Amino acid sequence: MTDRNEPQFVDAILDWRPIWFLARLALVGAYLLGGIVKFTDWPAAIAEQAHFGMTPPAFWAALTIGIELVGPILILTGRFLWLGAGMLGVFTLLAAFTANAFWTMPAGPDRFMATNAFFEHIGLIGGFVLVALVAERERRDA
């Protein structure tokens, strides 16, 4: 028997079926939007990759767009969710090291912001792992 101490309204929210989709949408929304924006502004997508020293920038822009669109779709549809979570987790880890290398910066506001962004990326990776775990447990219990 499970001892449940949550208030009834918390149980109601967590048991509400759309919350699973909405939580996944909140997790992947920025990636999905980023992919759409890059897809609709190809020159800016290439410029962003060049800014981070990625060569050839067009290849990395296309790969980024693909990951930012396919990963969220897999997570939102629940089909190969583990693959979408893995794609976005690895992408996020690489982006954190590429774009937020705070350890290379002198002390100051830029380093502070990069440090926060780096650890926010690590938190997102944890979110992808949790989504994959919940989906796997749900699949096993079905």
Number of strands: 0
Overall average residue pLDDT? 94
Main beta sheet: none
Q: Tell me the distance between the termini.
A: 20 Å
The SSE order reads: HHHHHH
Rg value:
18 Å
The class by helix and strand makeup works out as mainly alpha
Share of residues in helices: over 70%
SS element count, helices: 6
Specify the overall morphology. Answer: globular
Strand composition percent: under 5%
Structural notes for this entry:
With 142 residues, the protein is mostly helical. It has one domain. The chain is 80% helix and 0% strand. The chain has helices at residues 8-15, 18-40, 42-51, 57-77, 81-99, 109-141. Helix 2 (18-40) runs antiparallel to helix 4 (57-77) and helix 4 packs antiparallel against helix 5 (81-99). The longest helix is centred in the last third of the chain and has 33 residues, at 109-141. The two termini are 20 Å apart.
